Amino acid sequence: MPETPSTTLAPLPPLATQAERLIELGVHELAGMAADELRTFVKDLGGTEGHTLLAVHPDRAPASALAPLLRREGKSGFVVTDMPDVDAFAPYTAELPDVPLYLVTGLDRGDHMSNWSPDEALPALTADGRTPLLLTEGIHWVLQQPAALERNRCFMTIGSRLRRPDGTLDARTPAIWISNGTGRDGRERRNAPKIGWCWWNNRHTWLGFGSATGRSTT
Question: What InterPro entries does its record include (predicted)?
Answer without folding.
Answer: DUF5701
